[in-house]
Amino acid sequence: MKQDIPLQNVFSKPMKWFLAVFAILAVSGCIKVGPDYVKPEISLSTAWQSTLKDGFSAEVPEPQTMSAWWTLFGDCKLSNLIERAVAGNLDLKKAKARVREARAKRGMAKSYLFPTLDTTAKATRSRSSDNAGNGKTGRLYATVFDSEWELDVFGGVSRSLEAATADLQASREDLRDVLVSLLAEVALNYVEVRTYQARIVVAEANLEAQEESFNLTFWRNQAGLDDELAVQQARYNLEETRSQIPALKAELEASMNRIAVLLGEQPGKVHEELNKKEPIPVAPRAIAVGVPASVIRQRPDIRKAERELAAQTARIGVAKADLYPKFKLSGSIGLESLSKNSLFSTDSRTYSFGPGISWRIFDAGAIRQNIEVQSALQEQYLIAYESAVLCAVEEVENALVAFEEEQNRRKSLSEATAAAEQAVELAQKKYQSGLTSFNDVLDAQHSLLSFQDSLRQSEGKITSNLVRLYKVLGGGWTLLAPEEKN
Asked: How far is CA 395 from CA 181, 254, 307, in A?
């Protein structure tokens, strides 16, 4: 009677041979077909076209400044809103989910470098036909371990892993780019809120002054000192100013609602905390913007485009690998017995090993056309990367000019406003003395409202332009936690 032996000894020799072959092939190298990626070099000027003045410098911005540029405005409310946006914004959460997706896809691509191992176990009962067999009933007990390994001889799997790794890196840069845009959008809408509030204050102050002018013309008309024309002129001037306030309030509401959505909250949730009027955040005096080369290193959208180019370069190798044969090593180890009592005996063991090869001989040029497709896509990604660099430089140049010229505009508006205030005062005195018509008062009040409103808009635009400058410089993405950056 044969003696059963431990299961680990049943497959000792074939298993050792099988694993030895795997180990030898695992450490053997492979040939990676397709181009190796080389980061493209783009020649850029060492300085900006715009002359840096009014506090700008070509020094590389401090990392602390770029990571939290909004703190330069010294506005606690703005800082609080940005913190809440980072925690609750839905677009940012979606970008984080895309990173997890890309990380999982890279894990799948890496798994193809290793063999697969499947196991099955079954117990069957069968009976043969009386007419075609002996009509007997039999049982079969079996358990099998199957393994297969495609050897990455020509690097197709390795190139797939390269592409998946670059895709993961690109998704991380996309997350950072979403964050950069989010921070800027929160700040821009916050500046809009404060700007609309300031404009409403201006309109209401002018409305009060124009009401006094209307009352003055009305009583002068009642006293026979002025005609009905002055009364009606004062009335339409008053109502024109009054008509501007509802539009400003509507825009104010829209900006508040937009902030709530950016924070991942229902529109209307931030109204109570923003209704209190606060001054427009003031831009800092000294601003370091670096040089064009530093912008390329900082902006996540450029780095994303570069990583997408790297991924597509690797996919050319994946396509070229299909031109060559595929080598596989497969094996099977199992136990079969007609009796469950002898299933684990030495005589029940079965195994098979052997290499395999498959090679597509004819496909009407499909593989080579796919290589051409991937090469054309690589060219498109290269152009997209070059375009991203040029657009980034363009955006910074435009932001620098916009910030500087808006400061010049504010200076002129400030002087014009001061002159208009004096003109209103003089016109009112002359009108009350009967030395001039109400037309002069009307023109002066209309001009004062226009200049004051434009001045508030300009003050808000200066701050908004600085926010846009930090956005195009790529500031803010380092706010992400370390596990989100790696």
From this structure: 14, 27, 21
